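User: Can you help me understand a structure? I only have the sequence.
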Amino acid sequence: MNSMPTKVSPKVLNYASHVDDNTLTQAAETARLPFVHPHIALMPDAHFGKGSAVGTVIPTTGAVIPAAVGVDIGCGMIAVQTRLRAADIDGMDLGRLRRTIEDAIPLSPGNYNRGLDRFEFTRPRIDALAEQATKDGVDLSHSPKWREQLGSLGGGNHFIELCLDEGDVVWLFLHSG
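Assistant: Let's start by predicting it. Here is the structure, written out as tokens:
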């Protein structure tokens, strides 16, 4: 993530390291709306979307844009401060770390979940959720893969990222489905 944003147009700040031209154009168009104030900001996960770029912060005055949220409305985000400092991960095999994380947290909306018994707690948790859905009258037929999706990262713009703060402390940041 860029620590300092790049000013892409008069009302667009870009915090993304990599962003395509279509996303930049879409962001500039959104920023021209009369109620956008003071500017919009493209986050590290920004990419072309329907109507407005996904991963865009759009502050407004006197207006709400429900469609701007799009399919990200159910996403979860969390940042966790670790005990590590930048020096602790310097020279670390980050490729190996990535593979370890991907083995523990499958990518996609459950497509790479190899089973429903990955961990000791997986099956009991699935059974408890299914029982709760039945008890509450929740119809899960619209989402037949919910069991495989449980514990996955999700699809689209979801990510896990290691970040450093101003004090060189390592943070783990998660954006999931």
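Now, to help you interpret it: Residues 76-113+151-176 form one domain. Residues 89 and 170 are 9 Å apart (CA to CA). Let me know which part you'd like to focus on.
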